[in-house]
Amino acid sequence: MQVAGTIKYTKTYEYIKVENKTGVVGISAEASDKLGDIYLVDMPETGRSFKKDEETAVIESVKAAADVFIPVDGKVIEVNEKLAATPELVSSDPLGEGWIYKIEIADLDQLDTLMDYEDFKRFVGEEG
Questions:
Q1: Can you tell me the distance from the alpha carbon of 33 to that of 24, in angstroms, rounded to the nearest whole number?
Q2: I need a surface site. Which of 92, 99, 112, 113 has the fewest CB within 10 A?
Q3: Mean pLDDT of 95-109
Q4: How many domains does the structure of the chain reveal?
């Protein structure tokens, strides 16, 4: 799995995969492991704009409900419709088919405030 340079992480365990000015947002494998079996993903409304760190979605699992926060300012341009029928994709393939939504990134400079994979792994190690 290639993670260097294209994926950034937050301290609240979200990731954003950047493709030009589009960001694909989901939760990290570490977050999905902590949540356990996921049975519902409440997604944001397409077309809605959010500010960095604002709550955008909720994931419900057998262990807990977890808020999903937007990593950078942006407008939701697509949600992962597959998650309505198969929310467990968030656990089984968080960086692939388990993405939650896509955004049009408002300020690319905000990506500089996020962690790369190596920094994120160190952060997770310090947390755990």
A1: 20
A2: 112
A3: 96
A4: 1
Asked whether residue 23 is domain-assigned, the answer is yes
The pTM score is 0.93
Q: Which residue segment(s) compose the domain that 22 sits in?
A: 7-114
pLDDT value at 52 more than 60: yes
Residue type, 55: E
Considering Cα of 75, then 10, then 68, then 84, what sign does the dihedral take? Answer: positive
Q: Please report whether residue 87 resides in a domain.
A: yes
Is 42 domain-assigned?
yes
Pairing state of beta strands 49-50 and 22-27? Answer: unpaired
The token duo for 46 is 């397409």
Q: What is the DSSP letter of 114?
A: S
- Distant-in-sequence, close-in-space partners of 20: CB < 8 Å, separation ≥ 6: none
